[in-house]
Amino acid sequence: MSVNYKYLWSNYNYIIVFIGIFIAFLFTNGSDTSWTSMTNILLHSAILGTIALGMGFIILTGDIDLSVGSSFVLVGGLTIIVYNQVDNIFAGLIIAILLGMVCGFINGVLVGWLLMPSFIVTLATMLIFRSISQYMMNERGETRYSVDGSLSSYSALFKLGNGELLTLPVIGIIFICIAVALTYISSSTKFGKRVYALGSNPRAAKLAGIDIHWTRIKVFLLSGALVGFAAFLKIAKDTSFDPATSGQNFELYAIAAVVIGGISMSGGRGKVASIVFGTMSFTMIDKIITAVGMNALLNDSVKGLILLAAVGLQMVKRQSRSG
């Protein structure tokens, strides 16, 4: 029985790329590779990966969101302020998700209802959200937002962010559970089918009776909720937020994780599950760069080249299909 390599690459390229990067990771780390170092990949992928899952839905519609890093730090800062007042983990989580949805709703209304270009809208809100966060911090006369609750609440929060279950990081398990739920939503619900239809052909989707305006708003709301959830995971892991550096370049890293995962930047094609592999691949690339001793100032240059290569592969695939 012959193997259809073209079919495998076309449908499972994100797994093949992941395996290739994983082999490179093992090779460069050598004797330093252990089960802990591998589970750390999942740990360090969880926060960015949660944001990337929301970005994946936005890109599937053919839009983009450049504000996720800034909304991440704004939501994180506001959540810590509220959390220090209520001193309750569950309330902190709900507040983070709701604040994230507010940021997503603002973007969604401007893009989905007022029909403004998502690139321009989210470029503007990227500047607005981080500026507000830095202004708030300056007014408070502090250098960073820090959790300052009761000892029991602080300990429970830190344990959530840094604890393990069956040797796996808790926040990594949460990330995988979110990915499974969103994979189901994207592939087996009316909403998921509408997202793909909108990204494939907005005009045809509209003629088919899909409310493309409200669908776009829903997608930005979903992304905002995930940014809020990611901000809460960051709080649980580090118990602080720096408005100047937290979430820096997260919008670009989330896009890179989505593209490496094989989701088309033109919208309508790709699998949400692939974002998990794309995010972990991106995390391993960062670790490989560190392992080979490359100058830290060149890290983003390598990541940029990899992003260009991933987009180039998408173009080759598209041309081969059309040819």
UniProtKB/TrEMBL annotation:
The keyword Membrane applies. InterPro entries: ABC_transp_permease. It comes from the Bacteria. GO terms for cellular component: plasma membrane. It is a multi-pass membrane protein. PANTHER family: ABC TRANSPORTER PERMEASE PROTEIN YPHD-RELATED-RELATED, AUTOINDUCER 2 IMPORT SYSTEM PERMEASE PROTEIN LSRC. It is found in: Cell membrane. The complex is composed of two ATP-binding proteins (LsrA), two transmembrane proteins (LsrC and LsrD) and a solute-binding protein (LsrB). GO terms for molecular function: transmembrane transporter activity. Part of the ABC transporter complex LsrABCD involved in autoinducer 2 (AI-2) import. Probably responsible for the translocation of the substrate across the membrane. It comes from Paenibacillus catalpae. The chain crosses the membrane at residues 12-29, 41-60, 66-83, 90-107, 113-132, 165-185, 217-236, 248-268. This is Autoinducer 2 import system permease protein LsrC. The keyword Manganese does not apply. Keywords: Cell inner membrane, Cell membrane, Membrane, Transmembrane, Transmembrane helix, Transport. Pfam families: BPD_transp_2 (PF02653). CDD domains: TM_PBP1_transp_AraH_like.
